[in-house]
Design a protein that fits this description.
- The protein is α+β, with helices and mostly antiparallel strands.
- It contains two helices and ten strands; from the N terminus they run H-E-E-H-E-E-E-E-E-E-E-E.
- The chain is 19% helix and 31% strand.
- The protein has a four-stranded antiparallel beta sheet, with no helix packed on it. A four-stranded antiparallel beta sheet has the order 7-6-4-9, with no helix packed on it. Strands 1-2 form a two-stranded antiparallel ribbon.
- 20% of the residues are buried.
- It has two domains: 47 residues, no CATH class; 84 residues, RNA polymerase II/Efflux pump adaptor protein, barrel-sandwich hybrid domain (OB fold (Dihydrolipoamide Acetyltransferase, E2P)).
């Protein structure tokens, strides 16, 4: 008999935490907060919000861009192919701290090759090249927060000098 009560209590706790999270979402309308979590006991709900209206997907946040750096249109200007972040998270250019990076500028890559990792909610998600080419530029730094479809690096098409 105690098992159903514990399950019911757990469901009530989850419902209460979810309602608190929902209230927070309503209060954060129009803010720049993109990710937050609510915890109660052993229950934790993490929420990642979509881009607020007026923000261009893939744009580098002002705090992440170097002063004077303008990456908008860089790929189109010289026919490079952008490899984009598949999700929101933390960018890592190497498989582990202190390890050699997956790729460096000048390296040739094949379609499907792992070129980086984006960590989201403690899961390591491999970023794979979707085209073959030569790494021309890596535009984010190790440990940087990246947004969905943000340019991570540019490839020059294979066979071009």
């Amino acid at each position: 008999m105690t098992e159903p009560k514990r399950t019911s209590a757990n469901q009530e706790l989850i419902r209460a935490v979810w309602e608190e999270a929902r209230d927070l979402i309503k209060r954060l309308e129009g803010s720049t907060v993109q990710r937050f979590s609510v915890e109660a006991g052993d229950t934790k709900i993490e929420i990642e919000r979509g881009m607020p209206a007026g923000v261009v997907a893939g744009a580098i946040p002002a705090a992440a861009a170097a002063p004077g750096e303008d990456t908008a249109g860089a790929a189109e200007a010289d026919n490079r192919h952008a490899i984009k972040a598949p999700l929101v998270g933390t960018f890592y250019g190497a498989p582990s701290p202190g390890a050699d990076p997956f790729v460096k500028p000048g390296d040739s890559v094949e379609a499907g090759q792992t070129v980086a990792i984006v960590e989201a909610m403690k899961l390591m998600n491999h970023v794979q090249a979707d085209a073959a080419g030569v790494v021309a530029e890596i535009v984010v730094v190790d440990g940087q927060w990246v947004e969905f479809e943000q340019d991570l690096m540019y490839l020059e098409p294979a066979g071009e000098d």
